[in-house]
Design a protein that fits this description.
Order of helices and strands: HHHEEHHHEHEEEEEHEEEHEH
Oligomer: single chain
Keywords: Transcription, Transcription regulation
Pfam families: HTH_11, WCX, WYL
InterPro entries: CBASS_pafABC_assoc_protein, DeoR_HTH, HTH_11, PafC-like, WCX_dom, WH-like_DNA-bd_sf, WH_DNA-bd_sf, WYL_dom
Number of strands: 12
Protein name: WYL domain-containing protein
Radius of gyration: 25 Å
Distance between the termini: 64 Å
Organism: Pseudonocardia alni subsp. carboxydivorans
Structural class: alpha+beta
Length: about 325
């Protein structure tokens, strides 16, 4: 266990440069006294780590010290770094191990490749929650690949985009647009392109992009973009513009995972029953999303949704004879 911690300590210093004992202790989940002992052990083993005293001091490696732990290409590193959303390792109970692995990957890359991989990884985000619910994506491989090339390459993108329509309405014609990609987000099974169009924030569902062509022009991407913060802000703005309907649901507490694909606004558990209030775009949207969850989930409110689901169930019974 200590050998793994010593390796992680070297990689932290390799990646971050001069770092205080307090920060190292927090990252490695040990005490500052343990960090000091580990630094002494590294020095005794011939690792060129030294201390800088003073207000802005800390520990650092001598310039030029390198590690070579993997044969990863920058593209392979991006694939791994881009999977670092909290919903992935955290859900598997692998948060600390995942963070340690990411440090090793980053530190093992050559300087130029590390900068390239880290920058590219900051342009993709994988999250659990979409705009309103989980769903299959439907984006074509060719389109997604072209969008990814533009995002990672930092170039402008020409797309033919089909806007969304309400259920039962005929889809409108696709329109051509030229956008400046900011990042690519996968949320609840859907891919979204976050971009600027004429300087204005835009979010495009990749499954509605019929054609995509990266251009030779550099994209206008703001400096220091925090993709996760940007995604959350745009999602909240979307929900504020489209309040939709709120549905009250109940289910056994041990079946709570059945609602993993539903955006829950309120939740309480009592006497073995979990009751939630979930957000949907409209009643049609709610009916389609909740139908596959019956009978594990009971719909309590609004009454018109309860009636619509009952009528659908009766029709299904009649159709089955």
């Amino acid at each position: 266990m200590r050998a793994d911690r010593l390796l992680s300590l070297v990689l932290l210093l390799r990646h971050r440069g001069r770092t205080t004992a307090a920060v190292l202790a927090r990252e490695l989940e040990v005490s500052e006294r343990t960090v000091l002992r580990d630094v002494e052990a590294l020095s005794a083993a011939g690792i060129p780590v030294y201390a800088e005293r003073g207000r802005h001091g800390g520990f650092a490696l001598l310039p030029g010290f390198t590690t070579d732990l993997t044969g990863l290409t920058p593209g392979e590193a991006v694939a791994l770094l881009g999977s670092g959303a909290t919903s992935t390792p955290g859900a598997l109970g692998l948060g600390p191990e995942f963070a340690s692995a990411m440090r090793k990957i980053v530190a093992a890359l050559p300087d130029a490749a590390r900068e390239q991989a880290t920058d590219a990884a900051g342009r993709v985000l994988v999250r659990r929650g979409g705009w309103l619910r989980d769903t299959d994506d439907g984006a074509t491989t060719d389109v997604l690949t072209a969008v990814q090339r533009a995002v990672f390459g930092g170039v402008r993108l020409r797309i033919r985009y089909r806007t969304g329509t309400r259920p039962g309405a005929e889809p409108g014609p696709a329109a051509e647009r030229v956008v400046d990609p900011v990042g690519l987000v996968q949320a609840s099974g859907r891919w979204y392109l976050l971009a600027l169009r004429d300087g204005e924030d835009r979010t495009y569902r990749v499954s509605r992009i019929e054609e995509a062509e990266p251009l030779a022009e550099p994209a206008h991407r703001p400096e220091g973009v925090d993709l996760e913060e940007l995604w959350l802000r745009r999602r909240e703005d979307f929900r504020a513009r489209r309040p939709g309907v709120r549905v009250r649901l109940a289910l056994p507490a041990d079946r709570r995972d059945a609602l993993s694909a539903v955006t829950v606004d309120e939740e309480r558990t009592r006497d073995g029953t979990t009751e939630v209030v979930a957000a949907f775009g409209d009643l049609v949207h709610a009916g389609r999303a909740l139908w596959p969850l019956l009978p594990d989930v009971r719909v309590l409110d609004p009454p018109e949704l309860v009636t619509a689901l009952r009528e659908r169930a009766r029709a299904a019974v009649v159709a089955l004879g």
